[in-house]
Each structure stands twice: as C-alpha cells, then as structure tokens.
Amino acid sequence: MKTIKDKSEQSKINKSVRSAQEGSATAIAELYDYFYGKIYRYIYFKTGNVADAEDLTEDVFIKMMESISSYKLLDVPFSSWLFRIAHNRIVDHYRKISRKPTAPLDNIRNITDDSSEDMENKVDIDISIKKVYSAMEKLTNLQQEVLSLRFAAGLSIKETSLAMESNENAVKAVQHAAIANLRKALAQETIT
C-alpha cells in the first residue's frame, strides 16, 4: 500500500509528465532531475562502466523527450516506462559491442572516491564490489535484472513488475531466489 508521501510524489510526477507532454521545458528538467540518479545507478550497475553509464543515461532521457507525447498516464507508472527505455538501451548497447559487462576497479573507485577515506578503506570497498559483481555473474539474467531494478535503481516491487512486464508475485519470487543465490555465491567467494 502506498503512503501519502508516495501518492503525493506520484501526483507531482504525473503533473510534470502532463506538462512535459505539453512542451514544458521546466517539466522535462524536473523529470530529468528526479530520475537521473536512479537511471544512472541502474545503468552503471548493468554496465560497470562510468562512461557507458553516462552515455546510456543521456540516451534514455533523449528517448524520453522524443517519446513522451506517446506515454499514457493510465497504462503504467512513468518510472516503469522510463526504466523500460533504460533496459532497452542497455540491451541495444550490448548487442552493438557484444561483450560481457565488467566493473573495472578504477571506475568504481571514481564513484566511491571521498577525499576523507584512507587507501585501506578504498581497497576494501573495491574488493567488496568486485566480489558482488563476481557473485552476480552466477545469477540468471532474470535474477540480475530484478536485483538491478530493485536495489540499484530503487524501484518498488510494483514498479519492477511493470518495468519487466511481469506480475508482482513473480518479481518477489525471483528476488527471493536471487538473494539466496547471491548469498551462496558470496559465501563461496569468501571461502576461496
């Protein structure tokens, strides 16, 4: 069940969408500001590359501006529609380059860079992230997608199900299995 904050937030998003459909540059900027971080994190999580994530995120928002007039508020939440665009951009990206996603430690270090952290903490973070990426590779594509949408992008179960064109119970089941498999894979990483 949605909270009042969620409903008012959704109402504000819907108002911005309607204004953007009428050509409001301010409304497009509001949507961009609200969703940029979520879309970027989702794409970065899927690509493991800062430059690719930046480029693909911009592509998503260009496609949003080109297609927003065809979006219908009653069909699916705007966030699900936008994440479907992001998913399609990632699929297209990998079709073009035909390579497996990786997470170079240098790129991860740039994201987690904080001048107050000492080198030991940076190394620990890099090792932890590398272990998570390695463990994620042992999951099915469907499990990876659910975890990416739920935790990297921060979508709700409902938004994830709509973005994946699935039902909520299926998303919950896949998420549960993915987390269990991820725990097992991480435990194996720790042992080795």
Q: Summarize this, please?
A:
This protein is mainly α. The chain has 9 helices and no strands. It has a domain at 1-101: Rna Polymerase Sigma Factor, Chain: A.
- Kindly state the mean pLDDT as a whole number? 82
Structural class: mainly alpha
Multimerization state: single chain
The CATH H-level homologous superfamily of the domain at 1-101 = RNA polymerase sigma factor, region 2, helix turn helix motif
Number of helices: 9
Number of strands: 0
CATH-assigned fold name of the domain at 1-101: Rna Polymerase Sigma Factor, Chain: A
End-to-end CA span: 43 Å
Pattern of helices and strands: HHHHHHHHH
| Parts with pLDDT < 50 across at least 5 consecutive residues | none
In one word, what is the shape? globular
C-alpha-based Rg, rounded: 18 Å
Share of residues in helices: over 70%
Largest sheet: none
Beta fraction of the residues?
under 5%
Q: Assign the CATH class of the domain at 1-101.
A: Mainly Alpha
CATH architecture classification of the domain at 1-101: Orthogonal Bundle
Topology:
Layout: H1 4-21, H2 25-47, H3 50-67, H4 78-97, H5 105-112, H6 119-136, H7 141-152, H8 157-163, H9 168-191
Helix pairs in contact: 1-2, 2-3, 2-4, 2-7, 3-4, 4-8, 5-6, 6-9, 7-9, 8-9
